[in-house]
Amino acid sequence: MLKKIAVMTSGGDSPGMNAAIRALVRVAMHEGVETWGIYDGYSGMVEDRMVKLDSRAVGDIIQRGGTILGTARCEEFRTPEGRAKGLENMRRRGIEGLVVIGGDGSLTGATLLVKEGFPVVGLPGTIDNDIWGTDYTIGFDTTVNTVVDAINKLRDTASAHGRVIVIEAMGRHSGWIAMTAGLAGGAEQILVPEMAVSIEDTIAKLKQSRASGKKYSIIVVAEGVGNTAELGKRIEEETGLETRVSILGHIQRGGSPSVFDRILASTLAERAVMALLSGISGVMFGSRNGAVVSIDMEDAISHKKTLDTSLFRLANLLAQ
Ligand code: ADP
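^ thats the input. predicted complex w/ adenosine-5'-diphosphate below
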């Protein structure tokens, strides 16, 4: 059994990463295992910036967004020399296993450490919900709730003025946030990068909705669809309807994690530690149909998670 493990958060931050760190440290401690925190993802590994974490070090963080360890992107880790440095830094401290909390890129980096013979287990930490093999990633639920809260507020002003409000949600390559928040927020139209819709269609649908008696309109767009400001301008020019664009931006990354994300983070973290300690490596823990599952990390990074189009169909139907 391993006696010393490390944890890092890497890539884009997401609410719930702290809840995962807390659970990892405390489960490991319960098993008599020491945990080290690596600062700023692979940067801290390569640059040897690590700290021993005990139970008190992870107190008062379950409710905090962001990550107490910091996160970063690290070019040096992409090179064999960079990875060798990182491995050497961990081995010198007696660290025998690692938990990586991050997105697709971070988990790809983790598989390279596994190939070099270092035990690693992954946790899906990203607001985008774009990791194959898990229904949810840590942080997605909190972000969607933030977007829905914004939609509710923007709906008030859209309604008061009879405007069209175009809301841009995060998601450069994935429409999960826009689609889920759009459905939950009752958006009239949802535009995502996975499903190309012409601007002419968007405008035609808007005209139809006004003709059917709607007094205002909410359109939720994922950032990957294109230039949202330009879209708003075209809508106003071509429909004559007063249109406002609201780009939510980085507010979507912050905030106290939701109950769902705290519990997801804690349950996945517990399984990750127990797996690592029992000699399992190269897997990611996720949630499927409400149960914790282990997924081969190579599978997780080599498949693309697709949007649940049934939700999209439902959103369209309910927007009539
Ligand atoms: P995310 O984990 O949120 O998808 P990135 O794609 O930026 O974020 O990845 C985070 C870090 O993981 C990168 O800065 C790099 O250090 C490491 N990484 C990503 N892809 C690879 C890769 N193909 N090989 C080695 N390391 C990688």
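The chain has a mean pLDDT of 97.
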